[in-house]
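Archive entry: two folds, one per protein. Generate the first.
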Amino acid sequence: MNTTTRRLLGPRLLPWTMRIDRAPAGLWLALQAAALWPTWVWMGRRLQDGSDDPLGLLAVAALAWLGWQLRHQLRQAPRLPWLAAALAGTLGATA
């Protein structure tokens, strides 16, 4: 274990990382939805302006259906690469 890893997993930070790891899945989803609030506002405006964006609701519905179908296979603690991908996607959507 190198010095950087040892510092990152030091005694002060380790309990905090374990609390994050035990956060409920609903909290992760709520945080993701809150981080994307500008996108939700933009999409709501696009739905009302008569553009073709109502078809985007079909994609959101398909994603919700897929999440419901796979709900038993989802982990409470997300894998780090997927969490990093979600963070990158959120930052990309709000930039």
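Generate the second and append.
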Amino acid sequence: MPNKKWQATKTVPILIVSDIEKAVQFYSSIGFEETFRNDTVYSVLRLGSMFVHLGTRMEAADAGTSQALIEIEDVDDYYALCMAKNATIEREIEDQFYGLRSFNLKDRDGNLIEFAEPIKKGPKTKAKNPIIIHYVNDMERAKKFYTQTFCVTPLFESSGWTTIDFGAIELALHILNDDTQCEGTLPHAGLNLEVDNIEEIQTDIERLGGQLTQLREPSGGVPVRVATCQDSEGNGFELRQQP
């Protein structure tokens, strides 16, 4: 098969140590689990889905000459664990120019391991968790319609606010006040975003040509602050804030 393109499925670092038992004790203290042992000459360790092999098949003088890079989730938390276990930190945790946040650790034999996590790119968003809101005149009637029509389950229920899980999106039913009851098609259904502080976002909205047209405090069974807004083109959307 001269044209076949072979694909590697796994890379496993093999670290040379002078004492398998003591090496396993060290790695176990920082979260590794031993999955295989061949007497005093070989051990297989696992950290999540990543495997590291320890061996003594070379001369003792070769112990501590290996290096490995292991990507791990929540590298800052793992760094704190290694510090708490008095591991030998060769380089403190920091963002690297090559796109990883990492630190270097030496095991008891001097093998150098870099634990790393890809640096998350992009600015922190000011809004999150988009939902769709439907304003309703009769909460029980609306809730019955959606749950029985689509076989969905409410996540939260009250007389003024009910959220329903549709998988990738969440629908919120918001009761209309008595002075805004309407039996026709309700116009204010659309994008609703959760924010930390409505007034802070309002400043940016108005600076960029939009406006906040109404702000409602929690009341009547509705547990959140809700602001009705328009973008620079007149499209309506809403913001919600936990009180």
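Annotation attached to the second fold: The domain at 14-118 is CATH 3.10.180.10 (2,3-Dihydroxybiphenyl 1,2-Dioxygenase; domain 1). The mean pLDDT is 82.
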